[in-house]
Specification:
The structure is a single chain. The protein contains six helices and two strands; from the N terminus they run E-E-H-H-H-H-H-H. The protein is mostly helical. Strand 1 and strand 2 form a beta hairpin. The longest helix has 22 residues.
């Protein structure tokens, strides 16, 4: 989806790597499939057929007019700013820090690259790069590997345990 002025339109990704299938956790895939059924039924009621190229986030009812702008049309992609505002409201309702949509990408990939012992998913750099759509692991590692207190503590603990084990074997 591209933003043009205050409108959105469906367009091809900027790069070839933008065309990819992103694996989802089962709960997320189920939630999106459930939404897709709601969306399909609502859009069909307006005479709009849903296809595989229909963006998953479209208006299923007419949007409200704001500040002199005309309301969004049924079936039009949801504007990224509208989505971001909804995300911020959800974060506030949950009592969590407000993280923007791109921030969610950073959180996910950083967690992916964080070792399991430190509370992450334990992805290899190549898995992280593929998930992010990067052609090169170094871009992913430079952008998404952040030392958290947990990962530092886990590394220190691992190093200590290994050193003590080696010391015991030496005796």
């Amino acid at each position: 989806v591209q933003v043009v002025g205050h409108s959105t339109r469906v367009a091809a990704p900027k790069t070839e790597s933008g065309k990819r299938t992103v694996p989802l956790m089962p709960a997320v895939a189920e939630a999106l499939e459930s939404w897709r059924r709601v969306q399909r039924d609502a859009l069909l009621a307006h005479g709009i057929r849903v296809t595989n190229s229909t963006p998953i986030l479209t208006w299923i009812t007419g949007g409200r007019s704001r500040g002199g702008q005309r309301p969004s049309e049924v079936g039009a992609p949801v504007h990224p700013q509208t989505l971001a505002a909804g995300c911020a409201k959800a974060c506030e309702a949950l009592g969590t820090p407000v993280v923007g949509l791109h921030g969610l990408r950073h959180v996910c990939i950083t967690l992916g690259l964080t070792p399991r012992e430190a509370g992450g998913f334990g992805w290899s750099p190549s898995v992280g790069a593929a998930f992010a759509g990067h052609a090169d692991e170094t871009i992913t590692l430079r952008t998404y590997t952040h030392l958290s207190q947990r990962s530092v503590a886990a590394a220190v603990q691992d190093g200590y345990v290994q050193a003590m084990a080696q010391r015991a074997q030496a005796r």
